[in-house]
Amino acid sequence: MDHGTYDEHQDYSERQCSPEPDYLIALRRATHQKLIHPRMNSGWLQGRFLSMISKLVKPDRILELGTYSGYSALCLAEGLREGGEFISLEKNDELEPFHQRHLHVSDPGKRIQVIYGLAMDILPELKGSFDLIYLDADKENYLTYYPNLKTLLASGGLLLIDNMLWEGKVLSPVSEGDTQTEAIVGLTNIIKEDDEMEHVLLPLRDGLMLVRKR
Ligand SMILES: C[S@@+](CC[C@H](N)C(=O)[O-])C[C@H]1O[C@@H](n2cnc3c(N)ncnc32)[C@H](O)[C@@H]1O
Question: Do the domain assignments include residue 1?
């Protein structure tokens, strides 16, 4: 008996999730109308998961690498404590007018501070620690970001890393010159050997890894 494909399971799961708030539906629509590569958005299923995790962690400070349209940032902001701080890093400053018109217009969106520039340059400048970090930027630098992110993560804090299945490319030997898959596999191996961290890889969408600092 056929019980559906992996994609059908994800679609079914999505339909059983809580609805997106209206401001997220509006942002998703604007993303599809105004930006290229709208598929980079985390989407409904993963977005509801990020929101749920953030509400459980109740972070005072959130850091995100890779804002794009701000969809995942809005989901994570749902759990940010009153008076908390949310910093999201985005290399593409051409997104700023979009963020002004479509991201910073809702109450959660007003709490998100986007810093434009390369994450690698900005990370060493950040002060203090973060309770929740979401890594969703350039895959080829995932491994390079890890020491900085580990330092910035509070004890008991949670690092979420997207695309850790990388469309299944992690299952095969890495092709020569494929620096993205190489970095993702490299980071997975480093985390597995890191006694200071506990981790779980969920086959949600493109693979979401949860890494908790002990
Ligand atoms: C997959 S998208 C992020 C999607 C977003 N987190 C969401 O789920 O709605 C990745 C973003 O990272 C940004 N990015 C890529 N390399 C970066 C870097 N070195 N520093 C900062 N941002 C970067 C890209 O411009 C892009 O907007």
Answer: no
CATH code, 65: 3.40.50.150
Considering the domain boundaries, does residue 132 fall inside one?
Answer: yes
Q: What is the domain range of residue 206?
A: 6-213
- What is the distance between the alpha carbons of residues 70 and 139, in angstroms, rounded to a whole number? 18
This prediction's pTM: 0.97
Within a domain: 202? yes
For the chain (214 residues), the mean pLDDT of every run of 10, in chain order, is 89 93 96 94 93 98 98 98 98 98 97 98 97 98 97 98 97 95 98 98 96 97
* Ligand 1 interacting residues, C-beta cut-off 6 A: 40-42, 65-66, 68-69, 71-72, 89-92, 118-119, 136-138
CA distance 73 to 21: 13
Which residues is 200 bridged to in the sheet? 210
Alpha-carbon distance of 205 to 46, in angstroms, equals 7
* In contact, 109 and 77? CB cutoff 8 Å: yes
Q: How far is the CA of 11 from the centre of ligand 1 (A)?
A: 24
Q: Rounded to the nearest 5°, which phi and psi values hold at 37?
A: 60, 50
User: How far, in Å, from the CA of 40 to the mean position of ligand 1?
Assistant: 8
